[in-house]
From TrEMBL:
This is Bet v1-like protein. The lineage of its organism: Eukaryota, Fungi, Fungi incertae sedis, Zoopagomycota, Kickxellomycotina. Pfam families: Polyketide_cyc2. InterPro entries: Polyketide_cyclase/dehydratase, START-like_dom_sf. SUPFAM superfamilies: Bet v1-like. CDD domains: PYR_PYL_RCAR_like.
Length: 141
């Protein structure tokens, strides 16, 4: 059994601009991220990145799915220091154009294994909300 968390936000910027900021997976917009080290092209399935957060947490992510056609990427946590309280975690970011006003709908979902998932889901919720707010702040005029 797994647990899931999904957060979303409408960003007042064109989909191309929002997707460009997300597809790089460098999280430059996110105030909780200190540094990101990538091993290969950000769009290469199987590539990894080491994300260091401002609280000292270091996580290694592996890209497992990437689609320019659907503006979607999925990554999984392969290592974390300190350890996360779940056996596995997979995160998917989807970006959609809002045709009414040329804004962008961003959806960020996470699937966690059942072990320790309550704490992981709660933490994930607040981190995503903050990241989406930071993304909006960075991209909106």
């Amino acid at each position: 059994m797994s647990s899931q968390n999904t957060e979303s936000r409408v960003i007042n910027a064109p989909v191309q601009k929002v997707w460009s900021a997300l597809r790089a997976q460098d999280f430059k917009f996110w105030s909780l991220v200190k540094t990101v080290e990538q091993t290969a092209s950000a769009t290469e399935v199987g590539s990894t990145r080491k994300v260091t957060f401002t609280d000292g947490t270091v996580q290694d992510y592996r890209l497992v799915e990437f689609s320019e056609l659907h503006n979607t990427l999925t990554y999984e946590i392969v290592d974390s220091e300190p350890a996360v309280p779940v056996l596995s975690a997979q995160h998917t970011i989807r970006v959609f154009r809002v045709s009414a006003d040329d804004s962008t709908f961003v959806q960020w979902s996470s699937d966690f294994s059942s072990v320790g998932s309550e704490a992981a889901v709660a933490d994930s919720k607040y981190k995503k909300l903050e990241a989406l707010a930071d993304l909006a702040k960075a991209l909106e005029n």
